[in-house]
Model the fold of this input.
Amino acid sequence: MNTKPRIRDTVKRLDAALAMVRQDRWQLAGLRSGRLVVLANGPGDGKALEPAERKVQELTPLARRALYERRAVSISTIHTTPVGGVEDWELDRPTILYAPVNEPGRRPSGLLILGVRTPHWYEEEDLNYITAIAATLTAFVVAAIDPLRPLTRAERMVAYLLGEGLSGAEIARALRIDRSAAQEAIGSVLRKLKLRSASQVADLLEERRTESAPLSLAVKG
Done:
């Protein structure tokens, strides 16, 4: 099934929803290994980026705060000059807002970032609205940054078995295929994931489980 039209539709709807609040640029990014993977840009012609177009960027202090507190965070300053003469749209805009993308009780999977070229203070109503919009994007972001996304269903099964430490022969028996087919599938999994060994597959799956796990609540005695 071709998911590209649905992805474009999601971004188009997001662009329309964000037109209800003050902003002149927005960005949707997924969180992977403590960094942001840019998935879409707006406004006006909101664009879903292809994997080859996606840039990886570091988290700003305000972005880290929003992720840590799991709530929308905004700041407005009088700064309007690009730092060092290099345009960085987050630093270039005096008003910036970060809203974590997550469902209740789950770790944030990304950030929805809004910027305004002039100082602006968001009302509580705006923050609540943007928080709700960001929450609806959870499934989209999780799917977009899933490291196993390039794999077919059969290859995912092989990846999971590799992650559990099974050898090629054991995978062949488990899936009831011959050894050559198992080895070919293992090779395909490693190539698509750009990994070199089964241990790296295990590490990738563990990281994936950790990032998608529910947040634990500390109980004070």
User: Anything to note?
Assistant: The domain at 4-145 is CATH 3.30.450.40 (Beta-Lactamase).
